[in-house]
Amino acid sequence: MNRIARWQIAIFLAPALLIYASFSAWPLLDTLGLGFFSTDEAGQQHFAGLANYYKLLLDPQWSDGFWNAMGNNVEFFFIHMLVQNPIGLLLAALLSLKGVRFAKSYQTLLFLPTLLSVVIIGFIWQLILSPLWGVAESLLAQVGLAEHFQPWLGEEGSALLTLALISVWQFIGIPMMLIYAALIAIPEEVIEAARVEGASAWRIFWQIRLPLILPTLGLVTILTYVGNFNAFDLIYSVKGALAGPNYSTDILGTYFYRTFFGYQSQIGSPTMGAAVATLMFLVILAGVGVYFFAVQRRLQRHAF
């Protein structure tokens, strides 16, 4: 590649790099640096080293809320992993079969909630599950299950699970479509050869189709991880910044919001908020790193 070609590539990439540096890289670096400062009563910032991180991880005044949010976030993620992704795999496998009537219509209907605003989704499900004017109790009564209805969004033991299932319902179309695309990309000759050998549809799926889409399943897993540890909008739109009842639905996103901006009697602290954001970044980075260095390499060796 000659010098002129290199300059042309540099000029072509310069606008994108400038935008990325201005709106993504620089704010990230600034946030990482801000976490090492503290704010005094006069509003002045002073270098504090790791003091903010010590408070978040070890000082009960801050750490209780942080570890509660971290635990809830882990639970929120595992509910998606154990419910959303297996159902997405099942739906994709069914829709990829030959002869399924109205398959495209089913795909559209299943993917449609993903396109809706999270605020709208939260408001609709609040109306559905409300014990005062919601329709959930009457729908359960029609199938003889009225006695099982509870104010699930208002109880500490069930609020987080309910919100996670609402999120699963909204976003299940994403893993479904990714897995579906991987399934239909499998060469038909491979499937036909297995049929000629007398393999059943069940055996073809488990021994041929599933191993061939493992890289896609890994991608779906890491996207689920990043998306859930960045989650905020559904919890905020349904339960507010306090993530009630009694912080039982509090996750890292809502904890960061209250810490940085303040809420009601809690005064916001940009420096402590930056420390929370940095820890969120490190948690996500650690998960992505484990995936790429421990999982992705094995999947590539398996594929090739």
Overall geometry: globular
Widest sheet: strand ordering? 1-2
Q: N- to C-terminal separation?
A: 31 Å
C-alpha-based Rg, rounded: 24 Å
* Distinct helical segment count: 14
In round numbers, the mean pLDDT is: 89
Helicity level, as a percent range? over 70%
Q: Tell me the β content.
A: under 5%
What sequence of helices (H) and strands (E) makes up the elements?
A: HEEHHHHHHHHHHHHEEH
Low-confidence stretches: none
Number of strands: 4
Largest sheet: 2 strands, antiparallel
Which structural category do the helix and sheet elements fall into?
A: mainly alpha
Helix-strand layout with pairing:
Elements: H1 3-34, E1 37-39, E2 45-47, H2 51-58, H3 60-95, H4 103-115, H5 118-129, H6 136-142, H7 159-171, H8 173-184, H9 188-196, H10 201-212, H11 214-229, H12 233-239, H13 252-261, E3 262-263, E4 266-267, H14 270-303
Antiparallel strand pairs: 1-2, 3-4
Helix pairs in contact: 1-14, 2-3, 3-7, 3-8, 3-11, 3-13, 4-8, 5-12, 9-10, 11-14, 13-14
Tell me about this structure.
There is one protein chain. This protein has helices at residues 3-34, 51-58, 60-95, 103-115, 118-129, 136-142, 159-171, 173-184, 188-196, 201-212, 214-229, 233-239, 252-261, 270-303, and strands at 37-39, 45-47, 262-263, 266-267. The protein has 304 residues and is mainly α. The model has no long low-confidence stretch (mean pLDDT 89). The strands form 2 sheets. A two-stranded antiparallel sheet has the order 1-2. A two-stranded antiparallel ribbon has the order 3-4. Helix content is 73%, strand content 3%. The two termini are 31 Å apart. It contains 14 helices and 4 strands. Helix 2 crosses helix 3 (60-95) and helix 3 (60-95) packs across helix 13 (252-261).
